[in-house]
Specification:
The complex is a heterodimer of chains A (415) and B (233). Chain A contains 18 helices and eleven strands. Chain A is an alpha/beta fold and 415 residues long. With 233 residues, chain B is mostly helical.
């Protein structure tokens, strides 16, 4: 994103500020008290740190001018900034991506050494969690700090089912939330992201989806910070396909861009974690999986023609068997799900069909996995959920050779 | 009298043979043009078939939604295209051979045929584009309807596809100037019929399903947002 696309009023404010050490972008719709608490936590950082907080706001002006604030030593300085614009296409995820880009651009303009993003409302937040995101970059020269949320077993399903195990398998690091959304990035990292965007690399980098892959492929220092439990907004089942398209599209593009890097990666190691884990009670209700299974069965009946362009006959056969199972016995094996994700990633690269159609046709398969996962965990505790996800990640890793073979020689396994 | 009959017969035979002799060069030219065009057609068909096979034409057609595995005949798309090109070359050779007769009606026939070729090309292009658009839209509607849990997704998809194909076909026939009045009337009836059939299928035939779907979405949606514990992102 070029500086010229930053709103005029915000650009003037930035020019008055001149420079900062840390830029914090608040995308979440936080209450004023929470913003105040955040600012108070930020003030506990090293006193000489110049901090600018960009708050998603609609038109209010800062209460004091930058020079007045600097004279009083009153950092962090709060700048209202329309980060999240209403997207006429109804794509909130894309709108969030643009907001990240705007914060990175502002950080580069201010010459900041690091920037942090606050995109969630946290429950049982770890004390001074924002400092845990910022300090490693300011004091220990870390490049990327990703969050580690205390999660209930049925939260963050797209991340648990696809994003996290896929990132772990490809890049060899056990990262629980590669897409944040609360995170900290060093100057080196966000400049690299902005530079790649300006140079127009194939497909462009995504300011959020590309952060972890770029950092890991360039051997940058990555760690996780325990921040608390995230408050997840409810998802409309009718919009799942748009969500999958907006999230998995950039991830599959990154796979294509970083193919040389992940094909060489072997094994998987944990990343350092900062802070103490936060625990939450898991008293979630049992979900109704019948609608998701119906959606999968309908997809299996009507989308065979499309799936047959992407999936090999063995996988299609297993899906047909799965669709005939009664609800109580509905279980999708981890290896099957991992291979399906890999096949779709390959089809995305080969442009077997329109990419938009491809990702939307993946929706019934994703819902089948969610139904299987939810049914399996409906009667077990939180520890069992962690072990279950660990088994899924291991299935992704054990199927990596399948991915590499198909990626290098797509004709050999061409369905 | 017999001398006059004999003379008349000899004159008519002479006229016929003279006329036939005057046609001979034209006939030889026609046969030669046909033979040359057949040879050229075979060579061109072979080259085109090899080129399309190297470009994986059949696979790309499947990607673009032109044909599925079940529809592919034993002679693949590359063979069909090469045969069509060969036929066109032979037709052109035939028309060239006909103009060698130097008769007014043959020249006129050749001129009309050659003047018709741009219309034929435009009509074929319109039909081709229409088929591509129809397949793309049908796939979009199918995926969207399946993701919305509509049981009649396939009916909707097929209906949309045939609507677009009928429209493209009518436009192509208009380019070809084939019975325009009848085509317009037939198109109107067919298009309206398909729309009406879709309306009945969706509105009346699956009325219960639609009602249940809407009721379920209307009643459950607020509570689903509260009770559904699943969070995806």
């Amino acid at each position: 994103m070029e500086v010229d696309s930053i709103p005029q009023q915000a650009q003037e404010t930035i020019e008055k500020i001149d420079n900062a050490d840390l830029v914090v972008g608040i995308l979440a719709d936080l209450e004023p008290e929470r913003v105040t608490m955040l600012c108070e936590d930020l003030q506990t950082l090293d006193g000489s740190t110049r901090i600018v907080v960009l708050q998603n706001d609609k038109g209010s002006s800062p209460t004091s001018t930058p020079s007045e604030a600097a004279a009083k030593g009153a950092f962090p300085f709060l700048v209202p900034w329309p980060l999240l614009r209403p997207d006429p296409a109804g794509a909130p995820v894309l709108s969030a991506f643009a907001a990240y880009q705007a914060v990175f651009a502002a950080s580069e303009k201010l010459g900041a050494r690091a920037c942090c993003m606050v995109a969630s409302k946290l429950e049982n937040a770890a004390p001074r969690w924002i400092c845990q995101l910022a300090q490693p970059m300011l004091q220990s020269n870390l490049d990327l700090v990703l969050p580690r949320y205390a999660r209930r077993k049925l939260e963050g399903l797209l991340n648990s089912g696809v994003i996290s195990p896929l990132t772990r398998c490809l890049y060899g690091k056990r990262i629980h939330n590669p897409l944040g959304p609360d995170l900290g990035a060093s100057q080196r990292l966000f400049r690299k992201i902005l530079g790649a965007e300006r140079n127009g690399r194939a497909g462009g980098t995504h300011p959020l989806a590309s952060l972890a892959p770029v950092a890991l492929c360039d051997n940058m220092q990555v760690c996780e910070a325990h921040v608390g439990a995230r408050s997840y907004p409810p998802t409309d089942l009718t919009n799942i396909s748009s969500l999958i398209t907006q999230v998995l599209g950039p991830i599959f593009l990154d796979m294509e861009r970083n193919a040389i890097c992940w094909q060489r990666t072997r094994g998987c190691v944990p990343v350092p974690a900062i802070g103490d884990p936060v625990f939450v009670s898991d008293d979630t209700a049992t979900p109704d999986i019948s609608r998701m299974v119906e959606s999968f069965q309908l997809g299996n009946r009507d989308l065979q023609e499309i799936w047959s362009l992407v999936l090999p006959p063995a996988t299609l056969f297993e899906l047909r068997k799965l669709s005939r199972l009664p609800l109580e016995q509905f279980r999708m094996p981890d290896e099957l799900w991992a291979r399906i994700v890999y096949d779709f990633a390959l089809a995305h690269r080969l442009r077997t069909i329109s990419r938009d159609h491809l990702l939307k046709s993946m929706t019934p398969l994703y819902l089948a996995w969610v139904a299987s996962y939810a049914q399996e965990l409906s009667t077990v505790g939180e520890d069992a959920a962690e072990q279950r996800l660990e088994r899924l990640s291991i299935a992704y890793e054990s199927s990596k050779s399948y991915l590499v073979s198909r990626w290098r020689w797509p004709d050999r396994f061409n369905p | 009298m017999w001398d006059q009959v004999k003379q008349a017969l000899m004159q008519s035979t002479t006229r016929f043979l003279t006329r036939f002799a005057s046609l001979l060069p034209g006939m030889v030219a026609l046969i030669l043009a046909l033979l040359v065009s057949i040879v050229l057609a075979f060579i061109l068909a072979y080259v085109v078939r090899r080129m399309l096979t190297r470009l994986r034409f059949a696979e790309r057609l499947v990607q673009w939604g032109f044909s599925s595995r079940a529809e592919s005949p034993t002679s693949g798309p590359a063979v069909l295209v090469s045969r069509a090109i060969a036929g066109l070359v032979i037709l052109v050779g035939f028309l060239i051979g006909i103009t060698a007769f130097d008769a007014e009606w043959t020249s006129q026939l050749a001129r009309s045929a050659l003047a018709y070729i741009p219309n034929f090309v435009a009509g074929s292009l319109v039909l081709l584009v229409g088929i591509v658009v129809a397949r793309f839209l049908a796939r979009s509607v199918l995926i969207g309807a399946v993701n919305m849990n509509l049981q009649y997704a396939r009916v909707l998809s097929v209906g949309v596809k045939w609507l677009v194909i009928v429209l493209a076909g009518a436009m192509a026939l208009e380019h070809l100037r084939i019975a325009p009045g009848i085509v317009q009337l037939a198109f109107g009836i067919l298009f309206g019929g398909i729309v009406f059939a879709l309306m009945l299928a969706v509105g009346l035939g699956s009325k219960d399903l639609v009602t249940k779907s809407l009721e379920r979405d209307g009643k459950k949606q607020p509570s689903e947002a509260i009770e559904d514990p699943l969070r995806h992102l």
